[in-house]
UniProtKB/TrEMBL annotation, chains A, B:
SMART domains from the UniProt entry: SAF
PANTHER family, sorted: ALTRONATE DEHYDRATASE, ALTRONATE/GALACTARATE DEHYDRATASE
Native source species: Luteolibacter flavescens
SAF domain span: 11-79
Record key words, sorted: Lyase
TM spans (from-to): none
Protein name: Altronate dehydratase family protein
Amino acid sequence: MNPIFLLHPGDPVAVALADLSDGEALPNGVTVRGSVPRGHKVALRDIDRDGAVFKYGQVIGHATRPIAAGEHVHSHNLGMSDHTDDYAHGSLAKPTAYVPEAERDTFMGYRRGDGKAGTRNYVGIISSVNCSATVAHHVVREVERRGLLEGFPNVDGVIAITHGLGCCISNKNEAFAMLQRTIWGHVRHPNFGAVMMVGLGCETNQIPAMVETFGKPPAGSMHYLTIQQMGGTRKTIEACLEKLVSEVLPAANKARREPLPASELIVALQCGGSDGLSGITANPALGLAVDRLVAQGGSAVLAETPEVYGAEHLLTRRAVRPEVGEALIERIRWWEDYAAKLDGEINNNPTPGNKAGGLTTILEKSLGAVCKAGSTNLVSVLRYAEPVKERGMSMMDTPGYDPMGVTGQVAGGSNLLCFTTGRGSVFGYKPTPSIKIATNTPMYRHMEEDMDINAGTIADGEETHEQVADRIYREILRVASGGQSKSEALGFGDCEFVPWNISAQM
Amino acid sequence: MNPIFLLHPGDPVAVALADLSDGEALPNGVTVRGSVPRGHKVALRDIDRDGAVFKYGQVIGHATRPIAAGEHVHSHNLGMSDHTDDYAHGSLAKPTAYVPEAERDTFMGYRRGDGKAGTRNYVGIISSVNCSATVAHHVVREVERRGLLEGFPNVDGVIAITHGLGCCISNKNEAFAMLQRTIWGHVRHPNFGAVMMVGLGCETNQIPAMVETFGKPPAGSMHYLTIQQMGGTRKTIEACLEKLVSEVLPAANKARREPLPASELIVALQCGGSDGLSGITANPALGLAVDRLVAQGGSAVLAETPEVYGAEHLLTRRAVRPEVGEALIERIRWWEDYAAKLDGEINNNPTPGNKAGGLTTILEKSLGAVCKAGSTNLVSVLRYAEPVKERGMSMMDTPGYDPMGVTGQVAGGSNLLCFTTGRGSVFGYKPTPSIKIATNTPMYRHMEEDMDINAGTIADGEETHEQVADRIYREILRVASGGQSKSEALGFGDCEFVPWNISAQM
Ligand SMILES: [Ca+2]
Ligand SMILES: [Ca+2]
Ligand SMILES: [Ca+2]
Ligand SMILES: [Ca+2]
Ligand SMILES: [Ca+2]
């Protein structure tokens, strides 16, 4: 097995896949000087003092003294450069190398009345406020108990989308608009054949106000009622069940899968429970798969602003237009202000644990997260839960916390999710399926029932990034076409809708 | 029917229960001058200019011009007085008139090993982070599917307590301490016979760290495991089920109800979906029931700081010690600062809708909420989810939002909940049962399957406050003894655990 790993052809450093000892010969003929721990960087050639050090083909810092080929590269000889405010908006944007239309891939999806493409055909019972959450879940439970889905084989399931918010908040600020967008993005999600909204009646987050804000959905695609209007819990549940059987399920059951171009895919990118291999195996492999999807005319949604923090100038340089880069910087400034207000700190600096694992600079750390978005242009920067409108790679402003990030990405229209994990996150979501990619083989083996893809084969020397990227890309098409992901088989997705709230709860 | 309603014997104003017309004779012989709409105040005697106007036996403002008996009392002749910073800590505290011990009431409850008293005997599956929420719910589902409760008739049920928090937060600030307290207050709640905690493994909110913070619970009362340690979702569910059947359920099943003094009751007070009658019927009647409970040596927990705002000096005057009153003011200042930081506003001023309904000043409005805590001393002011330690009436700092408020109150040890509602909230909780008290008869009739008690009979002239208070008090003892509340019959309580988060989610 090759003891080192090169993340980009031109990089002057590689990552050790095992502990390297003094005098050991590397495949390129260089001899290791001193020792280099597993996961740390080794110099592949001499680097001058002040010379730029590249990893992932990107600058991660500058040499603070001359570095000889074979030396360990870390805090003792690598430092941060003054870089952070040269956003150089769009300076590295380049034309996308699209696959000719005639040669593009397809998947079997649902074409909705509004032109959007779904990968699933669920019916959603969506609550406007926590006060109606129990009713939504009981409707789902009764559908199962009474076997009401039996006559509707084309419906993937009736699911409850509930949450802890919706009242005792100002209805005038951005936080309220975010909640409305988050819920509405699910109401109008193409993975739903139809939805029913259930409210209490007196909540701040009024369902009719959402209809007014966003416009009346096409007839039959959305129904709503409130508990107070229906006269209580039991009557509301019965009314929902009656409406489901008489109208909603028969309508949703008419949907059929048909061949749709891969350009209709909007893939949410997420990582959770990262480890030292995340930025070396799973994330770069996912980045290559994203590049392939974008070449097909498809879309990907990077998120998790606090984890991008410190590498924002790399994204601004890939912005298709200066405004796109500027929108990202505006979001970065918002986070600095918000975190400071709440005595928090936005700071993605490597922790002592990261440093022990071989990460030297904030750039290197953030690059490990950002590289899952591949190398194409940044086509738009979205507010939380804002609909994806431009094809290509977008960035949505979300927290790094998995359920809140994914909830925003799905609200934006993501019809598939690729989730990399090192420690073993078991994340699944509805109505958007989640493909989980393990960064290392031991965890994959330990949790194989939960993991869809093992990218640890790269560190094991058994596969290249391109080979794993190919498996990810094919898995995207398979799952988008209705193939079950591991988290779907396990029944995840009834607890993971967690809207992000930035305002004071009164 | 008496057309007016007097909230306290000495009050110079009464509330109109129907529209009053010019010349109409009131029961006390006074003649109505002009018209007084339903829900508004009418003067029962002449009030001098600058004279204090009392309602609930409390000053709600001063006459801005002379008011004649029979006149409508509202914004045109009643204004706010300069009162707000005279906290007069403890000036109105008085000895509690306890019922002699030998004459005290009892209920049938569970005496736990640590001395605490439970009103239910559930087994809880509690998640440390959203990432383990699905596993917790699936354990509960499998218990039902496989009929695993069959041999354990003394266990009220196996329930999942899950939430949207637990990771990507600082573990150094008060917000994290709040989350730990909230979860631990449920882990150690006397309404649980035993609990199992389920974590993912890599979350910020580590289960062992909670055990270290709060101390090891008595053997057998708490078990925990993580998904990453067990090797995935299915194996974790099976391990939980095995532990439940072999150890947890048999242990919990040993609990038996026995007569316990009413002094062991800790009743959370909450209102949701309030209306114009909340402060006139249900809340004051609940206040009388609370006074009766406190006279028995029992405890009540007022909460909802934003709704107390503006009437805090009334509570500080009832403080048993100056520090207690000062602790309340410290919380009020915290809210002002917190709301300002998030571009919010803490302001309980009457809205145009409140004014149209007859509420003139902020004092009058807050009094309508505070009066559900009765008239006894304020014995302590608690942080969110802090354990109730002093018997009597305490105030816990929580948002007004029902699920977040109740989650904190239950974490503090509340073993029963009284919830007043005018619009018709259908709130239920587990493991603490909820008694819902309707403020008006039309809503009670409309939603009778959800409402436990109708306090609208007071406005109807059919019962006095004392009569309704007696029904509430007896219902408290009945439900505490295992009698089913309406929300329990309907199966509420699997979605309403919503911890309050005041920090930035990263
Ligand atoms: Ca992450
Ligand atoms: Ca994440
Ligand atoms: Ca939920
Ligand atoms: Ca309220
Ligand atoms: Ca409330």
